[in-house]
Records
---
Amino acid sequence: MAAADELAFHEFEEATSLLAETPDAATSSRSAPPSSPGHVAVAVGPGGGFGAEEEDEEQGDKAALLQPERPPPGFWTFSYYQRFFDVDTSQVLDRIKGSLLPWPGHNFVRRHLQNRPDLYGPFWICATLAFVLAVTGNLTLVLAQRRDPSIHYSPQFHKVTVAGITIYCYAWLVPLALWGFLRWRQGVRERVGPYSLLETVCVYGYSLFVFIPMVVLWLIPVPWLQWLFGALALALSTAGLVLTLWPVVREDTRLVAAALLSTVVLLHALLALGCKLYFFQPLPLQQAVPPAQVTPESPRTPPSPALARSAVTS
């Protein structure tokens, strides 16, 4: 009897604590039939939130499976482009680090993109590079004017437009032409498998990141240092492009592979050289025109008699 009373007392304490936590819950008596396997021991009232029924969860899963598959959104909708910007900060930083530290045998597309290319990083890298180019190009003239007052400076806002158009056209049109050429070569030689257009654009966009610190370092007014920083940045950027494209073009003929990689390096070098010569061109000096010096006129002397007689006789 003592054991039965103690067991009943423990059950009463459990029921009391349960009712204190969830007032709307109703306990099941010991004499009630055992609940079915698909239900929990405590039933939840209309306003309770304790222990959802397993049967409702199973029905919800079945309903989700039976729903018809939604068609992919059209390219004219925002949801279509949303997946291209679905990246976090750690992924973007990892891809930037991969573009700054190219290593033989490490494919940027397979190692860092992992079949999930994005447009978020390339878009903001191009925007930042265009803005930094325009600002540093104006700052170069401002700093030079402080050193030499004869230099004339006027704000050159058009450089923002020129930099934006140049960078974005390069980051989109060159990958588009490269992707189209590789697709054409895929039809000629079946073993050539190009990257997708989005992967090619992503590779070019991240390869331009190294030019941002290079442009900032070009503010140092030492010509040989500027060319050294430019050569180093160009070497890192082109090395990343060549190492990424080599697994695709190595199956092609040697002539086509060499010509394609040489064109990629040449276009990259022309971009860096054009930015250096246009935004950091030799400073225009304002030539001060000296005032015209007025020389006193010499007093007129009468002609000599001999000259007068010769003029009369003639």
---
Amino acid sequence: MEVLDTIYNEVFGFLGISQAWEIIKSGDYSAFRTYDGIKSLIYPLIPLLVLLELILGLAYKKPQTKVYKVNFLIYVFNRFVGRFIAIAMVTLLIGWLEPYALINTESNWYWFIYGYIVWELGHFIYHYLGHKVRLFWCLHSTHHAPEDMNLSVTYAHFFLEAPYADIIRTTVCLLLGVEPIMLFLIMFIDGTYGAFIHVGENMIKDARFGFLNKIMLTPSHHRVHHAKNPLYLDTNFCNLLNIWDRVFHTYQEEQTEIKPEYGITRKVNSGNFFDVYFGEVIALAKDIAQAPGLKNKLSYVFMPPGWNHTGVHKTSKIVRTTYLENKLP
């Protein structure tokens, strides 16, 4: 009976309907007009879309079942290993850093816009480092390993990536004066939209969204980010506002003649949980063990993926630059 209860709770937890269900059982439907009530209605959207996307994939006979399988295993593993680490880290940082804020903000619409721009800066920094520092790439590569883009990819993360990401994003926000209440609201919006931008072609074929493609980050932009095509490597690091990608020249639109090829450049068995989850960690450990001298060993940890102590580098910057140079007339 206890096993059935656990399964029941995990299913409700995945679908995100527990809070809404409690409100419905209470009969107090006015609670849906509160912030928590609104959240309880929004949380289930992404899990339900994941199921719908899988059903559409089966109908179109393009389900990429191995991607769903591995991402589901990652979700289950992370539920047990890293369930509360990130939120605990955010809480600790609020207590430590809030007194050192460089400016003071208030809870109104224009400070909210400011807060979101600051949050995107923090997200850009974390995400950029996740691609440019090999140690951090070991945490982030799990998210890029799937060879198909669909909503289940949003659950594919190494369990230590969330606390690493939130340390950077929360630190930037708190030091630049974003209030904790506003920060949690921004995190909720960002998490929901950040999941949605992984929507696959089974559900939305052309995800550019017309004129919105110019003023915000769309699923089309994020498909580019997940692609391993030379033109698309290490671009579009933002989540909702693409302002910082434009500032730091990492902005790239999807080209109609270049279909995104998903996955990572390392040969990986995307249907194997251990290769997807631990493959980059193992590869880094092997490079460190074989590298001559302490300087080279440390360089493998902190230099970009593709760096090699022999000088024959295959970093994304070199690959993309070479591609662009060869494309010039």
